[in-house]
Amino acid sequence: MFQVRIHGRGGQGVVTAAELLSVAAFMEGKYAQAFPSFGSERMGAPVVSYCRLDDKEIRLREPIQEPDALIIQDTTLLHSVDVFQGLKAGGYILINSTRTFDELGIAEFVAKFPPHHVCAVGATELAMTHVKRPVPNAALLGGFAAISGQLQMQSVARAILEKFPGPIGEANVAAAQAAFAFAVANAV
Amino acid sequence: MLHQIEGSEAVAKAVALCRPEVVCAYPITPQTHIVEGVGALVKSGKLTNCEFINVESEFAALSVAIGSSAAGARTYTATASQGLLFMAEAVYNAAGLGLPIVMTIGNRAIGAPINIWNDHSDSMSMRDAGWIQLYAETNQEAVDLHIQAFRLAEELSCPVMVCMDGFILTHAYERMDLPTQEDVDAFLPPFEPVQVLDPANPYSIGAMVGPDTFTEVRYLAHDKQLQALKLIPEIGAVFKGVFGRESGGLIHEYKTAGAETIIVALGSVNGTIKEVVDVMRGDNAAIGSVSICSFRPFPLDELRAALIHAKRVVVIEKCLAPGLGGVLASNVRMALRGATLPVYTVIAGLGGRAILMSSLQRVFTAAGEDKLLDLQFLDINQESVDHELERAGKTRQSGPTAESILRQQAKRKGVGQ
């Protein structure tokens, strides 16, 4: 089983990101279970969602305690929420940021992870370029596909287009492809 | 056909496949978006011959459902939490009148204190209202149970609640096999009511019944539940014949052969329990589990047969009966009357507290060594409880409990006051 935890803020599409991840995995014939952590939904509040991927039926219902991968949609959470809690040694970290790990204050921490497992990608900027809205979730899924190798970029694109048919979906796919290409080239 | 969809959406589609003629709902919190999904299917024309009625409250939702069902329409509604309590009087009436309404409960806690998260307090409060209560272990089972529920309700002329864990199931995206319309039509015949309000053939439903006949009418309600005990497995077998998978039935046993410790629970927590059973079986622990699908009627004989050879039973339950302990555990003890094996009650998951594999394994291991109390609360913060008892004991005007516990928690986290 491969477990992903997504951190962000209300309005950034954190729950949709987990859903899309599960749909992309489903399209590849995998079992997938996506669910949000539930709170009082409001714009800007810290939000967590989860996605499990497996080759067999997923029975486990606990919130993900030891993720294999983290997607952090908002760096302002880095110092208010323990986003790295339980992350497995050898896991993957994808952060939505154009800043360096030094600037984010986590260079020492991410250095402990294997090569190409950690990446910061400016997903909000990519979303602004392609979608004209600061919603980083779809772009980050492209980055996730690149660093984790758990999903094909093509499946991520299909999942996005199924959820958002038409120009909005296509723009999100473009953002995801740009993030994929960036992560392939820049993951450390 | 397989889909990767949300539990609520899947149930909305399953309900639509059952061709309901009236769906009424009060569409705000604590409603799930199941009725929203059904409403969308009606509006888009995908679900025809169905009237979707937005009503002014949950009380009205079930009251309208009673009227439409009595008029011979296949009727569905859904609610949860405080919404179910608000319709309580109508809940008893629907059962007392023998109207085959199907209602989803997206299980949630009941306030006060205010809490929107999952547990079983809501449906448990209506356990003896005369409805059949089925609990879904997975979203697939939730889909399948709704299809079975209409057939069960209409064959017996008795209302059925399908209970599925709020958020944990209703908001989870998973792989589900949604049946075809042809298969559902083959399984579920058109509604043929045993009583119908018809101006062409007028009679009354809902007579006043005095002391000389009330017991008999109530006994017949009990007898209907006993008939359901036979019918539920039969319908499950027919379902398997049409759809090719096991769903529903009275109980599901998991690795109970040779088990010395058997865990009993309702609903989605059984998935996590099975994972713990597998881990502990790997360590040579003689452990298994039983998931109860039909809580009303309660399958006393089947449960007794499943549990009687164990050395102990641990009941995990998401509902607290203050002053007693566990509702489910009390029912399980009834199934084991006369036997000497201990039945431990573990209250877990109240108000949405996560039920972790590690916590369950700790409790099951302690049970295996018979080191459990009769009643315990999974992962309770005893320090917090003791602190509050001490604080409240010091002064008469100790103030509200919930607010005090929240202040304590904020202090521990180093924020707030």
Major sheet: arrangement of strands of chain A: 2-3-1-4-5-6
Number of strands of chain A: 6
- How many helices of chain A? 7
Second-tier CATH architecture of the largest domain in chain B? 3-Layer(aba) Sandwich
Overall SS class of chain B? alpha/beta
Number of domains of chain A: 1
Number of helices of chain B: 15
The poorly predicted ranges of chain A are none
Helix content of chain B: 40-55%
Keywords, please?
heterodimer; A: 188 residues; alpha/beta; Pyruvate-ferredoxin Oxidoreductase, domain 3; B: Rossmann fold; Rossmann fold; 6-stranded mixed β-sheet; 15 strands; 17% strand; globular
What is the fold's blueprint, element by element?
The complex is a heterodimer of chains A (188) and B (417).
Chain A: E1 2-9, H1 14-27, E2 31-36, E3 46-54, E4 69-72, E5 92-96, H2 101-104, H3 107-110, E6 118-121, H4 123-130, H5 137-148, H6 153-163, H7 167-186
Parallel strand pairs in A: 1-4, 4-5, 5-6
Antiparallel strand pairs in A: 1-3, 2-3
Helix pairs in contact in A: 1-5, 1-6, 4-5, 4-7, 5-6, 5-7, 6-7
Chain B: E1 2-6, H1 7-17, E2 22-25, H2 34-43, E3 51-54, H3 58-70, E4 75-79, H4 81-86, H5 88-96, E5 102-107, H6 121-125, E6 132-135, H7 139-156, E7 160-165, E8 173-177, H8 181-187, H9 214-243, E9 251-254, E10 261-266, H10 269-282, E11 287-292, E12 294-296, H11 300-307, E13 312-317, H12 327-335, E14 343-347, H13 357-368, E15 375-377, H14 382-394, H15 401-413
Parallel strand pairs in B: 2-3, 2-4, 4-5, 5-7, 6-7, 10-11, 10-13, 13-14, 14-15
Antiparallel strand pairs in B: 1-8, 6-12, 9-11
Helix pairs in contact in B: 1-2, 1-7, 3-5, 7-9, 8-9, 10-13, 11-12, 14-15
Task: Characterise this structure.
The complex is a heterodimer of chains A (188) and B (417). Chain A has 188 residues and is α/β, with parallel strands linked by helices. Chain A has one domain: Pyruvate-ferredoxin oxidoreductase, PFOR, domain III (Pyruvate-ferredoxin Oxidoreductase, domain 3), CATH 3.40.920. Helices cover 39% and strands 19% of the residues of chain A. Chain A contains seven helices and six strands. In chain A, strands 2-3-1-4-5-6 form a six-stranded mixed β-sheet, covered by helices on one side. The longest helix of chain A is centred in the C-terminal third of the chain and has 20 residues. Chain A starts with a strand and ends with a helix. The mean pLDDT of chain A is 95. Chain B is of the alpha/beta class and 417 residues long. Chain B has three domains: 230 residues, Rossmann fold (3-Layer(aba) Sandwich), CATH 3.40.50.970; 127 residues, Rossmann fold; 32 residues. Chain B is 43% helix and 17% strand. Chain B is built from 15 helices and 15 strands. Chain B has a seven-stranded mixed β-sheet, with helices on both faces. Chain B has a six-stranded mixed β-sheet with strand order 9-11-10-13-14-15, with helices on both faces. In chain B, strands 1-8 form a two-stranded antiparallel ribbon. In chain B, helix 13 links the parallel strand 14 and strand 15. In chain B, helix 1 packs parallel to helix 7. The longest helix of chain B has 30 residues. Chain B is globular, with a radius of gyration of 22 Å.
